[in-house]
Amino acid sequence: MQKYLYILLSFISLGLFAQSKEAIALKDYIQKGIEFRKMKAANDSIKFANYDSSIYYLQKSVDGLKAYPDSITDLLEAQYNLGTAYWKKRNFKKVTTKPRLRKQLIDKALGIFVECTNYSQTNFSTQNYIQLADIYNYIGRIKGDAFNNYKEANEAFSKANEIYETKSLPDDKTLSYTCINLGRNYLRQGENQNAKVFLKKALDIYIKFNDRNYIGKCYQELGTVSRDLGNLEEAKEYYKKAIEVKTPRPDLRLKASLNLSSIYLFENDIEPAKKLAEEIIAFYETNEYDGDNVLCKAYEISGIVDRKRANFEQAFENLENAYDIAKKESVYGIHNRESAKILYNIGDAHFASGDNQSALEKFQSALYALIPNFDTRNVNKLPLYEDLYHEVWILECLKAKGEVFKDMYLNTDSLFFLERSYDHFKMCNEHLDLMRLNFTNESSKINMIENVYSIYDQAISIAYDMYSMSKDSKYLDDAFEFMEKSKAAVLLESIRTYEDSQNEGVPKELISEQNDIAQKINEWKLKEENSENDSIKSLATDTLYKLASQKEILRKKILNEYPNFKDLEYTSFVNSSRDVKSKLLNIKSALVEYFLTNDALYTFAISKEHSYFIKTPLDSTFDKNIEDVRKCLSSPNDSQESFELFVNNSNSLYDVVLHSVIDSIDVNINQLIIIPDYKLNYIPFEVLLTSLPEDLSEVNYKISNLDYLIKQYDVTYGYSASLLIEGSKGLELDELVDFNYSGFGPSFGAENTELCNGSELSTLDNTAAIEPIRALLSGVSYLDNESSKATFIKKSNSSLILHLHTHACLDDEFPMNSKIYFSDEPAYTYELYNLDLKADLAILSACNTGTGKLRRGEGLMSLSRAFMHSGCPSIVTSLWKASEDITRRIILNFNENLKRGQRKNRALKTAKLKFLNDPATSKIESHPFFWATFIHVGDTSEIVYKNQHFKQTIIIVLLLIGLLMILFLPYRIFYDRNETTA
Known about the structure:
about 60% helix; single chain; 6-stranded mixed beta sheet
């Protein structure tokens, strides 16, 4: 027995020895493979052979190690290097001329890397996780660079970053590479705020490791982010820093110089841009360097400058030189966005030179560069919708083709060309939806829409022309859709997404966590912007990176666990004119929606029975009219000159924006819902004069002297018709709140000195403004020191009516940093966005709460917008600095009218008219400055106060009892008489 045991042990020992020997051999193969991959060579052929040898040894090690489940570290190492070898091999000259072979190498590399992500991570070490993160980096690079799939690239880079976040791995070069990859990818997609966060984190790590090449790259990418955000001076500083970095690679310094020249192009300062580009071209010629992406960019910039100079022959030569380099597989290849951009610029030069056919062909080729299976032979063709993806240059090419077709129509009067133009702009509209809904950052969505807003200009103007010629209602429907999508679409999407998350059962804790992260991001952005302290800036960089990472992890968790919500998140529909008629209007109301271009005002007027689409040509006086009226409204002035200026300009504006509408709509209409556009947001329509007074010699602003629009119509405003429909909650709000009214009135003065843009805030009479309304509505009030920010946030969701009698301070540069004051500290706009309001109405009796920075596509970025975002469907807000005494009187009377059961817009109108018709109101107090600053935005329905249903029920029961007694009394008398007779 013992003998057999020795024999068995001997066999086991030999087996272990053999396995040990094989494992050592496999490790040797890995090292040989790595050595061959990294080996320097005198020429390209030898290096190509080295990669073949590398692949040979690494493949042998992979095949052998798969038999050893416990060798995960070695297997990952081998596969990581094998995938890298295939990926690097794609750029050799022997491969770049053979697209099929190149694709095979790329596919092979991707397959190897993806296989690594499927291994069990049960026994992973820290080093294994770092290598896995790097593998995800390669997957992201391949998805983005080889397949132009930036969405999947972003998912891979985010996965790499998630490994660092969830496994608490140290800051190292793999993390910095992950961050720069994420930053670049966000930049390519137009998500500049996210790009900035990750690029700054990458820069911090590279500085620690003194990696000069990547420090220079980070500065360049940050410069491009700043450029795209419009911060040109900041962009210049980043590019200059990139040039100053003592990197051993001259191409990086040259690229930084080219990027600096792109700033000059943005500023239309073409001479220094041309000079820098020509110097780089000369440098390459002198040193006999092969063409690469830097030389390609130099030719491109030089060609763009020539096109701006109308030197078309030279422009075509430089741009064609750029494309010849770009289309090489070792540079960009044919199917690449950089190649597409050059083709786009060639097409733009043809368009500028008057050669429309050649322009169309180049724009079509640019689309083919972005969408490989797109047919380029017929310039009239559009891509299939399913082939579109998140790429801004697809949008630019479609837009450019639309503009060329429109020019061809204007030159020929051929309806065929106008129809082709319309088809292209309609697809632009669909592509805009796709892009906006794939952004994860609200500010990026707003920036993107603002940058391509001219698409809506073209789409609406062509829809008008097509409708005018054909009277086909489909163009009417399209035009209204374009208008709606050009207004507050991001706000609408945010509100719908929040509501959808609740409908699909996403826990409130997760939604709250999302909101907390978003608020912290804004807080740290504010700290970063306002601090000069390097240590605080560094802490902000690290904190913003961690918060952005957490935000992405949480977003993925919600989408994975609640798949139905994922589908809802990507809806982008807006309501139609038919929806407006059925869901928003009654027989007494009309909606008037505007779209403003440089030379025309497009107006949609919708009543219960009819729709009207009106085009009003504009001249240079229109903007001046708005500015003059706004100037008159912002301060009371009893001079003759100011009076005449107001009267004449107010009436002129009425003639342009409303006269034709009033003439068209039904005569019995007395309610107007106004959806303003761009600068029209600054004017309360109630002050427009429907006619001029007979005598202008006396300065008299009284309503008996001037025909203000408020005499005839109840006016309310909206950010869009779809938002108004969305805001009709249809909920029993009185069951969700504790009080009818909450009034907040902080104190300002010696103890609580606050400054807004250098000016001290004045003391307010909170008791007089709030207590009468509190008593009227049996509500609660928080005055003076009780009116703290913390109290407001805690109590803001407990009342039907929220009333803030305080000061506000606007930040036009960064609207999210605008603030509204409380007794201890202000609440910033980004904090208001995170409230969960149950109120039916918010009254913001503070100065300028309805104004802010104008953003094309979203309107005024005001404090009132934040309240609507947080769930309040109806706002009373101010457009300029208000008089406290008159504000107090109007707001009190407004609440009295609401208590009587008036609709919100009628209640505010009635309060203003009561003030204007009061004999005690002087001629100068009748100036619109005093009464017109407050406007109503949103849902107009009556307020159903808490317990009002109970009171109504009691009244109805008492009435029924009374009715029954009245009906029963004759019978009782008759019965008593019969009893007596008997």
